[in-house]
Amino acid sequence: MSKSGFMAPEPPVLPSPWATEARVALMEDARTFARDVVLPIADRLDPQKGEMPRELIDQMASKGWFGLTIPAEHGGMGLGVFEYCLVSEELSRAWLSVGSILARGQGLGTQTIDDERRRALLARSARGEWIGSISLSEPTAGSDLAGVQTRAVRDGDHWVLTGTKRWAGFAQGADFIEVLARVRDPNDGEPRSAGLEPFLVVKERGSFPEGITAKVIDKIGYHGFLTFELALDAVRVPENDRLTGLYGDGGSDADSGGFASVQRGLNIARVHTAARAVGVARAAVEDAQAYLQEREQFGRAIGDFQALRFALADMAAEVAQARAFWRQAAHLLDQGEPAESETAMVKLLATEMAVKVTNQAMQLHGGNGYTTERRVERYWRDARLTTIFEGTSEIQRRIISDRMLPRP
C-alpha cells in the first residue's frame, strides 16, 4: 500500500480561544501516535477486516486517554468533551475504529446504584481496564430508541433480560455490555420512552455470558472491531447493575431516568462523531494532496492542473469549517449547555462533508483510488457510516427543524 499522506502537525493559528499550550501538546501527542503506531496497524489489518490488537488498546490506556473526561479524583485526566474529541479526531485520521474505541471508556458503565462500586469502576475506566460495548438499537428500533422492546423483568434481587439487540460494537472484546431495556410499558399520557432503563451485563473479555448468543454483522467498513447482533435469553442482571446513566462523571442521574441520560449521552456522541468524521476527511485531503504531487500525466504533476488544485482547496476548506464547528459545539457542552441543535447540526454537516470529501479524494486518485492499494478507499467506506450511526442525517434534520418550527 502506498504510504502517501499524513502531513506534519499543523501549527495552531494564534491567538485562538481553543489553542492552549496543554491542548496543543495533547493534539500533537495524539497525532504522532496515530501516524507512527495506529496507521501501520490499520494498513495491515483493515484489508483483512481484522481486529485491533489488545496491545494497541493498552498503549492508549497507558496514555490515560480512556479517562480523558473522568475527574482527576477518580484517576482520570479531568478534561472535557473538547479534549476527548481532539484526541479522537487525530486517531480517526489513521483508523476510524481507533478513534471510536475511546468512547468505550470515559466512565461508561460506571453509573451503578451503589456509590462505592461506582467509584471503583470509574478508577478502572480511567485506567482502561473497564471498556464496554453499548447495545441500544434493535432490529426494529434504531433511530427510534423509544421503540426498544427488549424486556427487563424483576425477579427478586435480579432483573431478567430477554430480547434481541443489534449493532453492539466491540461486544466480544468488552468487559461489559450496556443494554437498554424496557422495565414497564408507558402509562397513558407518558412519552413512549417511559419505562426504559440501561443495564450492565458484566462479562469476560473474548466471550459472551450465559444467555447471550451473538452473530457477527459483516460490515463493508469500520473494521478494527467486530459488531454483533445479540439474542438475550433470560440474561440475569443483579439489581446493583441497573444503571442510572450512560455517560457521567460519578454523579447520580437517578431522578432523570435512564432514557433521558441516553439522550444526553447522544449529544456528546454526536460531537464525537463529527470530530471522527473530520479526522477521516482530513486523511483524504492529506492523501490527495500528496498524490497530486506524486502522479504525473501529460509530462507534469497533476497537481499543476487548476481544476484539481481548486478541488483540493474546496476539500480543505470544508474540513476546516467542520473542525471549527465541532470545537464550538464541544465548548458549549463543556460549559454545561445542552446544545441540542448545535450538536445535531455539527453531526449532520461534518459527516455529510466527510462523505463528499472522501468521494472527491477518490476521484482525484483516478483509477488508483478504486483499488485497495491506496488508503483512500478505506476513508470512503468509513466516512459513509458516519452519516448513519449516532443518529442518521435525517434524524439530525428532524432534531434541528423541530427546534425551529412547531411539530406537526
From TrEMBL:
Keyword Transmembrane helix included in the entry's annotation: no
Domain Acyl-CoA dehydrogenase/oxidase N-terminal: 20-129
Acyl-CoA dehydrogenase/oxidase C-terminal domain mapped to chain residues: 257-405
Gene3D superfamilies tied to this protein: Acyl-CoA dehydrogenase/oxidase, N-terminal domain, Butyryl-CoA Dehydrogenase, subunit A, domain 2, Butyryl-CoA Dehydrogenase, subunit A, domain 3
Co-factor(s): FAD
Matches recorded under SUPFAM superfamilies: Acyl-CoA dehydrogenase C-terminal domain-like, Acyl-CoA dehydrogenase NM domain-like
Keyword annotations from UniProtKB, A to Z: FAD, Flavoprotein, Oxidoreductase
GO MF term set: acyl-CoA dehydrogenase activity; flavin adenine dinucleotide binding
A Pfam family annotated for this UniProt entry: Acyl-CoA_dh_M
Domain Acyl-CoA oxidase/dehydrogenase middle per the UniProt entry, residue ranges: 134-235
InterPro entries linked: Acyl-CoA_DH_CS, Acyl-CoA_Oxase/DH_mid-dom, Acyl-CoA_Oxase/DH_mid-dom_sf, AcylCo_DH-like_C, AcylCo_DH/oxidase_C, AcylCoA_DH/ox_N, AcylCoA_DH/ox_N_sf, AcylCoA_DH/oxidase_NM_dom_sf
Record-linked PANTHER family: ACYL-COA DEHYDROGENASE (PTHR43884), ISOVALERYL-COA DEHYDROGENASE, MITOCHONDRIAL-RELATED (PTHR43884:SF12)
Family label: Belongs to the acyl-CoA dehydrogenase family.
Protein name listed in UniProt: Acyl-CoA dehydrogenase
